[in-house]
Design brief:
alpha/beta, Sugar O-acyltransferase, sialic acid O-acetyltransferase NeuD family, UDP N-Acetylglucosamine Acyltransferase, domain 1, Rossmann fold, about 25% strand, 23 strands, eight-stranded mixed beta sheet, about 10% helix, Hexapep, Hexapep_transf_CS, six-stranded parallel beta sheet, 2 helices, acyltransferase
């Protein structure tokens, strides 16, 4: 029997995950938020701020991280690491319309949204978001805490480092690498590898400060 789930966060990303979890008949105990404000989560119970999670034993619950990632330095990464280090498990969430090859694999806390496609031989590390309609082709590697935004295309054998943001609609051609903590702007077309801690935009993508 699967464990009950607590959602962290109550914004737009959490709302999308909530829809998926409801469709899967998940036992949702409620959500946490640092500030109790009007929630996008309809009738889901507000439990308190994140510290309330420590009143549950790690073996008794799973967590779902409902906080999105809009930069390469994110509160999402910090929260994931904080609770993982204390023994809590973040459940992977996969929309029923996503297509994942049997030979692809993914880690804890990965979130694969509606219409996403993940092809054969791809490896996705922990706490990665593969957002709506993104295409990850064969033999790609996506390291931890990275966000592949809606409509992104990663061609074959692309390697994306940790804590990256690949903006909506970007395309990265085959065998290109993107270094950790980098940002690829929305709609960019990346034709050559990007070093760590860089930002690229445009078609073809060029580095900017």
């Amino acid at each position: 029997m699967s464990k009950p789930v607590i959602m962290l966060g109550s914004g737009g990303h959490a709302k999308v995950l909530y829809d998926i979890l409801k469709q899967q008949n998940t036992n949702l105990l409620g959500y946490t938020d640092q500030f109790h404000h009007e929630s996008k989560l309809e009738d889901l119970n507000y439990l308190g701020n994140d510290t309330i999670i420590y009143s549950y034993l790690p073996e008794d619950i799973d967590l779902v991280l409902g906080i999105g990632k809009i930069s390469n330095e994110s509160i999402r990464d910090r929260i994931y690491k904080e609770f993982s280090c204390r023994g809590y498990t973040f459940r992977a969430v996969v929309h029923k319309s996503a297509t994942i090859s049997p030979s692809a694999s993914y880690g804890k806390g990965v979130q694969v949204m509606a219409g996403a496609i993940i092809q054969s031989g791809t490896f996705i590390s922990e706490n990665v978001i593969i957002n709506t309609g993104a295409i990850v082709d064969h033999d790609c590697i996506i390291e931890s805490h990275t966000h592949i935004a809606p409509g992104v295309t990663l061609c074959g054998s692309v390697h994306v480092g940790s804590s990256c943001l690949i903006g909506a609609g970007a395309t990265i051609i085959q065998q290109v690498s993107v270094g950790s903590q980098s940002i690829v702007g929305a709609g960019a077309v990346v034709l050559k590898s990007v070093e760590a801690y860089k930002k690229v935009i445009g078609n073809p993508a060029k580095e900017v400060e």
